[in-house]
Fold:
Amino acid sequence: MIRVEGSVYRPGDPGYDAERDGFQLHGQHRPDVIVAAAGAADVRAAVEYAVERGLPVAVQASGHGLAETAEGGVLISTRAMDGVRVDPAAGTAWVEAGARWEKVIAEAGRHGLAPPSGSSPNVGAVGYTLGGGMGLLARQYGYAADHVRAFEVVTADGRARQVTPGDELFRALLGGGGNFGVVTGMEIGLLPVARLYGGGLYFDSTAEVLEAWRAWTETVPDELTSAIAMVPLPDAPVIPEPLRGRHVTHVRVAYTGDAESGERLVAPLRSAGEVLMERLGDMPYTESHTISDDPPHPHAYAGAGTLLTELDSAAAFAVAGPSAEVPTVLQVRHLGGALAKPSPAVIGHREARYVLHVVAGLDDPDTPGGPGAQDVEAVRAYQRRQMDALGGVGTFLNFHCGPATESEVAAAYDPDVYQDLRRLKATYDPANTFRLNHNIPPASA
Ligand SMILES: Cc1cc2nc3c(=O)[nH]c(=O)nc-3n(C[C@H](O)[C@H](O)[C@H](O)COP(=O)(O)OP(=O)(O)OC[C@H]3O[C@@H](n4cnc5c(N)ncnc54)[C@H](O)[C@@H]3O)c2cc1C
Structure:
């Protein structure tokens, strides 16, 4: 029996599926118990219940980062804990476990401020930040984890702890994912950003466009963060007419300088190929979701990624271009700037200059065998092969959609940091209760 203010669901209960369903529809967890937490006390009760019975605990806010297909255990759903409180004088926000970036963006925007949010406003702020968090303005402001001031976290011993810089657990939470406890809220510093110049240019996908973007990234200031996405688009009415049915390359730009210098900076890109469509201009940060235009609807997908010190445009093009073996969306983000600087966050491989990741749609559980259906094992094998061939220096786990092997998780950190994280895991979660994630196993005694 779990006594909570929120709700408890078991398989077969009305509401079980609705509480469990998130953005990722592939490999959904089938827990024995779902605790839809109303607050930190419910999280403590759920953790205590699980630990007493030796059950693993998973945490879900939005389901954008589902890492492990699991049977059984306890799922703590933080969806209802979505409070956001901005302190404009301090330039900070208190963000509860289940709040999505869209709410933080709206609240901060009222005061001319912005959070270190990423391409999709539907992603959960806490889960994103625990994975490091690579935002739209990352080259100027670093990782989201670099902006955390405090966490409230329930650890495996059932204690609710306030964790601040100086506590050994603080650093582990800046990139160590959900391994060390359930974060019930965090305080973050907001960015002094009310507007930006940004948006996108669309081209037909060619290796030349990719190479032109790569060469251009070497010329831009840290105030400009950009990415490129190669996307096979369907011939469907929802797609803007100039892009319909084409394999397009979408160059995405976010620049905090004025519009005039933004236009000047972007100008050389226009000669990369014929511009099929353009959406660039000055915008309030509250419109920043239009830059990447990520899909908002839940679907089934698998993805993998790698951090690169060099981008071989021809090789990257072959992974996801029109004649790729598996229809794939490829994204490359330009790193460097503040991302390359040391910070307390445990994120490794600061020398990487690009992060590349691929995503492929999977057989939709609602329409098995439907259009775009692809077999998960074949897709994962393809993605692993391609990532190995690109020869990256490590992984950025936020862009690793789905289960990661122990070595893929280890490859997200510098080796000595990883050993430190394993030691801290042994201190704070020796039974590995929080293992349904990109798991860092406890160091053996
Ligand atoms: C469309 C899309 C766009 C994205 N864009 C970006 C981007 O621009 N930059 C970037 O860095 N990442 C990005 N991501 C990756 C995203 O940040 C991660 O998938 C992140 O884990 C999502 O967190 P969530 O809470 O929304 O997802 P969930 O699936 O609900 O949670 C993912 C994991 O985070 C952990 N977690 C979540 N909440 C808590 C908590 N309160 N306490 C402890 N652990 C917790 C758990 O391990 C959980 O399994 C994107 C993902 C998608 C699908």
Residues 84-189 form a domain with the Uridine Diphospho-n-acetylenolpyruvylglucosamine Reductase; domain 3 fold (CATH 3.30.465.10). The mean pLDDT is 95. The chain has three domains: 7-77, 84-189, 195-399.
